[in-house]
Amino acid sequence: MQVAEQNTFSIQNIDPVELLNTYGSPLYLYDGGTIRRKTGELQEAFAGINMKIKYACKANTNLAILRLMRSIGVELDVVSPGELEMGMIAGYTASQITFTPSGVPFEEVKAAVDAGAIVNVDSIPLLEWFGQTYGNTKPCLIRIKPNVAAGGNAKIMTAHADSKFGISVLLLDQILEVVKRYDIKIIGLHQHTGSDIKDAEPFLKVADILFETAKHFPDLEVIDLGGGFKVSYLPGDAVTDMALLGKNISERFEKFCKEYGRELQLWFEPGKFLVSEAGYLLVKTTVVKEDPARNFVHVDSGLNHLIRPMMYGSYHHILNLSNPNGEPKKYNVVGYICETDTFATDRELPEVRTGDVLAFLNAGAYGMTMSSNYNARIRPAEVLIDNGEAKLVRRRETLEDLLKTQTDL
Questions:
Q1: Do the beta carbons of residue 48 and residue 73 sit within 8 Å?
Q2: Which residues does the annotation mark as catalytic?
């Protein structure tokens, strides 16, 4: 593993407070340069390997982000018809998009296949239906569950025996029987272990399982190892050593390809790894409440905009952009939702005053995409900084946006 450097606001020549004043508070801010850098890290780690990156766009589906991904040669992994449509609106062809469903209605799978996307089949019933519907006329991948537990949080582990995702490797004989019965065109095997995996060992373990399973499928073109690389949250946090991971996986992959008899393509599906560090949620302090038990910093946002701390217990580093050199004090940073709504507990920050602008780091993944209108609150604007230019890529919502789908008006 590697250790990350201290988290800071890293977008050069940009005044975040000025942007907040221009576009309103709260505000999501994304750095295109960070996305390019993270993509480059992954490409460099697997230099010399026939490797393709499929961005798991559930992390952030803003069309500007998708277009940026397309411009740097990154393809897409989607999990819903809506994400598939967004990808095509952003300029992707359906053949550049992989659809990885999880127990969805088969009509959704049919729509994706008919559009030209490649489907990851995640259950025996879906495999049966796929064979009955398409036979050998359409290609697909099979999502294998390797029964390996790995990841930073039980809620985001996806490859252990109790996970709902994929077809257990223990059902290989049943998979092969269905494939043979319908002569299904299997061009790849896929697995996704989970998220926030900092050590190479779980990746190597599931890769070995997938390589061994692949020997039973003679016409493969792709091995898809998913994503889940650890990103930095806390200052000095441990992250995935991409160089070491790339070296070890590449050696195993090349050995497998030689044994298999031809070169295959290796796919990865990073989401958070590409966009998390690129994002900031900027907020304003509304009230500083000095309580006998705690000092509370109330801000003009909440779990409706960034649910990860409440849902996963996730840490997001917080900067006081208005008073970075203030005397350090400990605070509970809380949101404005009428519910327990805590961003940080007993967090040491430079003295926070009413009106100060705070920045939540690592907000580029699963921030806006998991946001809501709870408490009839509107969602913030989004701004992308790329090549030194700040561009509004989603306007701030209005009350009219919340009401426009209601019919009893």
A1: no
A2: 338
122 and 255 co-located in one domain: yes
CATH number, domain of 223, equals 3.20.20.10
Identify the three-state secondary structure at position 161.
coil
pTM comes to 0.92
pLDDT tens digits, 291-341: 888 999 999 999 999 999 999 999 999 999 999 999 999 999 999 999 999
Q: Which domain holds residue 306?
A: 276-403
Among 221, 238, 269, which residue terminates a domain? 269
254, pLDDT greater than 70: yes
Question: Which run of H or E residues covers position 114?
Answer: helix 106-115
Give the residue from 269, 295, 311 where a domain finishes: 269
Cα-based torsion angle of the residue sequence 32, 76, 229, 366 in order, rounded to the nearest 10 degrees? 70
**255 shares its domain with 283:** no
User: For 377-393, how does the pLDDT look when each residue is reduced to its tens digit (9 = 90+)?
Assistant: 999 999 999 998 999 99
**Are 182 and 230 within one domain?**
yes
Task: Let me know: does 319 contact 8? Beta carbons within 8 Å.
Answer: yes
**Number of separate domains in the chain:** 2
- CA dist 388 → 63, 144, 253, 304, 384 (Å): 19, 43, 39, 30, 10
Residue 151 DSSP label: S
